Amino acid sequence: MKRLTLILLGGLLASGCATIRSVKTFKDPLSGEEHFQLATAYEARGEMAGAEREYRAVTRRDKKNLAAHIGLGNAAFAQGRHKEAELAFLRALRLSKKNAAASNNLAMLYASQGRKLKKAENLASHAAKDARFRPYALDTLATVYLQQGRKDDARAAVAEARSLAPANDPNFLPGLEKTAQSIGE
Fold this sequence. Notes:
Blueprint (H helix, E strand, L loop, with lengths): L2 E8 L1 H4 L3 E9 L4 H13 L3 H14 L4 H13 L3 H14 L4 H14 L3 H12 L5 H14 L3 H13 L8 H12 L2
Helix pairs in contact: 2-3, 3-4, 4-5, 4-6, 5-6, 6-7, 6-8, 7-8, 8-9, 8-10, 9-10
């Protein structure tokens, strides 16, 4: 387990320079799994800065934690830091080239920016092959198709995504309806 080191500085204002008063080493009491649970709780509440801090704690312990890299990408994306999000999703895809969540999230990032649309289409199409992610990937594909001017394909993707809408995700349908409104439905 890694240790965090806290250096206490004193006399900064009085002397114009810092002196080290003491050095204390603290052991992080949380496991990587506990940091991950905290991160997902923060993310669920929309507290992306907290989620990002906890996902980083996970990746400090385990640089190959796929879910934490995807979480970092989600947090950066939600905060409008698109380059960081892209890099996090690409790191996740380096760890697992066929990961549907990382593929779909990177595709959505590209689609939201209207760039790399062919790559976004390929990524989302790949993600749609995984039944667990199919409705999400279809929503992403609809966004890509709309960016490409393919309204009929976008409508078909939205219709299928509606039919597969997960009952346990209350945020999915409102987001899908925004996509449908963008198409003109």
